[in-house]
Design brief:
By secondary structure, the chain is an all-alpha fold. It has 7 helices and no strands.
Length: 136
């Protein structure tokens, strides 16, 4: 901890000394305003780049979950479609209109799907399907 405090103390001291030196040069008319502003803006640009690099977020590469195709084969194509629609939050009417079937047919497919997954509602079905790696 002491090393960290000393490190930042030295950085702040060096920065302050640099700015005071530049200020003295400017006010003693040894440096023009344009040069003074170029030097100050360059210092802040470099400081900004260093801080951005220091605090850049570390990339966490998550492996995309693999689908278990054996378990997926236990479901009909229509049931697989129902799972995808459920995972995206569609209502029965929206599913029916997308697949050109009646809402009652959607209910029938969902009932079969719930029985196979051994769940009682849509949320549980999606959670169970993700747990079994049937959907992403």
């Amino acid at each position: 901890m002491l090393k960290l405090v000393l490190k930042y103390g030295l950085i702040l001291f060096a920065s302050l000394a640099t700015f005071k030196f530049l200020e003295y040069q400017f006010f003693s008319h040894k440096m023009s305003l344009e040069i003074y502003l170029i030097i100050i803006s360059t210092i802040f640009l470099i400081l900004g780049l260093v801080v951005a690099w220091y605090f850049k977020p570390t990339k966490v590469i998550e492996k995309e979950p693999e689908i278990d195709h054996q378990k997926l084969a236990e479901f009909s194509e229509r049931e697989q479609q129902m799972l995808i629609f459920l995972s995206q939050g569609y209502t029965n009417k929206e599913i029916a209109s997308s697949l050109d079937i009646s809402p009652n047919t959607v209910k029938t497919h969902l009932k079969k799907l719930f029985d196979k997954l051994e769940v009682t509602n849509r949320t549980q079905a999606v959670a169970e399907a993700k747990f079994l790696k049937i959907i992403k």
